[in-house]
Write a structure and sequence with these properties.
Elements (H helix, E strand, L loop, with lengths): L1 H6 L4 H14 L3 E8 L13 E5 L4 H10 L8 E7 L12 H8 L6 E9 L9
Parallel strand pairs: 1-4
Antiparallel strand pairs: 1-2, 3-4
Length: about 130
């Protein structure tokens, strides 16, 4: 979670001001920060850690957006999206607005981690 550490080096009040600016400028959207959850998960494309997502987007719709920004993700790998630091996996039908209202950080950002899982009977590579 290298990006979280880098992002959180900014002063808390500065981060809060950034989030409040986003919320004021785009009242129907939520500020989201995404980082990889495990070292095995590939990094997102450069500059694809910060999002301003419509509140009515579901977690499933957001996962589709993230999949496009994970160049090393194959169709045999499933994506898991967890809240941070609670590490809960919310239903894909839940909206980002619902997740935000429940799990937003005190700096008014929603922090999510993404990880890859081999699924659909895919064989492990390298063994």
């Amino acid at each position: 979670m290298e990006f979280f550490a880098k992002f959180r080096k900014d002063d808390w009040t500065q981060r809060l001001a950034k989030a409040r600016h986003v919320l004021q400028e785009y009242p129907s959207r939520v500020p989201v920060i995404v980082d990889r959850g495990t070292p095995e998960t590939p990094n997102l494309k450069e500059d694809h850690h910060r999002y301003v997502v419509p509140q009515d987007h579901t977690m499933g719709q957001f996962l589709n957006i993230l999949r496009k920004n994970l160049p090393a993700c194959t169709s045999a790998q499933g994506l898991m999206l967890h809240t941070y630091p609670q590490n809960t996996c919310e239903p894909l039908s839940k909206t980002l607005g619902q997740v935000y209202s429940e799990f937003q950080d005190r700096d008014a950002f929603l922090y999510l981690t993404i990880s890859l899982e081999n699924m659909f009977g895919a064989e492990e590579t390298g063994a």
